[in-house]
Here is the input.
Amino acid sequence: MPDVVAVDLGGTNIRAARVNERGEVLARDKTATLAESGMGAVAARMAELVNKVRGPETIGIGVGTPGTPDPDTGVMKSRAVNIPDSQGYPLCPELTRITGLPAGADNDGNLAALGEYWLGAARGEHIVLLFTLGTGIGGACVIDGHVYHGHSNLGTEFGHVSIDYNGRPCPCGVLGCVEQYGSAAAVGRDAREALAAGGKDARASLLWKLCGGDPAKADAKLVCDAVRDGDAYAGALLDRNCDYLATGIGALMNAFNPSCVILGGGMALAGEIVVGRVRTFLGKNRAYAPIFKDARIVAATLGDDAGLIGAARIAFDKAGVKV
Here is the structure.
């Protein structure tokens, strides 16, 4: 059975896995990224890792990067985070030159969505939207097994959909971006602000106790932990953030009419504490009712392997093997 090597280019480590047509991981390894050494050196380490993990039946390479590679040529259109000379670098051509294997690449968020479509929470769905809830909000869309990239390969910037044109400024330059209200970073910021404002309800809350009475220690995880243990104060805070998040998701559901919406990233690890709230608010006219009722709203299931599984999928495509 043929297999491929999937590569995840991270800021700290490069991970690689040999994956067969069933999506089974046959071997794994990783190496330090050493981003400061430059993109040429990073690509050489990627190729070395590929050659270490590959087997006699390996037919291709798939790469997930934090930047924006051209999906057709594999040349980096935008800089990969923390690798200053990566923009314009011919990543896939170089990997092919060194390893002799055809290579494809895509943004790591796109590949996480593709992985969930192939073998995860959205297996076999028609139109899939992925929202990654972390420091910001990442987005991706998969339609019938194909990543939607947009006209200039810059589509699905879901975190930068504005839900308040007079709202908080975002580093992207837009006012009121949904990631300023519904991301893990926003949940932590709002909790710190609420606790710092004081009041007897704040000081009587479990969240206050979990922070040791120091509002500066509050973050999204502590908020979710407090909610899980029944803290009404933390629950009200999280409700507000999830309502904002549902407003942004609902707007995109109305645009794409998806069959499945996946919530991933660190905050989604809280499970129904977050996913259930988003689902509830979506049902309160945050999305067009017929569209909402026809879509599943679920948590991602593949964890850190989602991007690797998606990278394997594009490697098989690049090699001309249908999986």
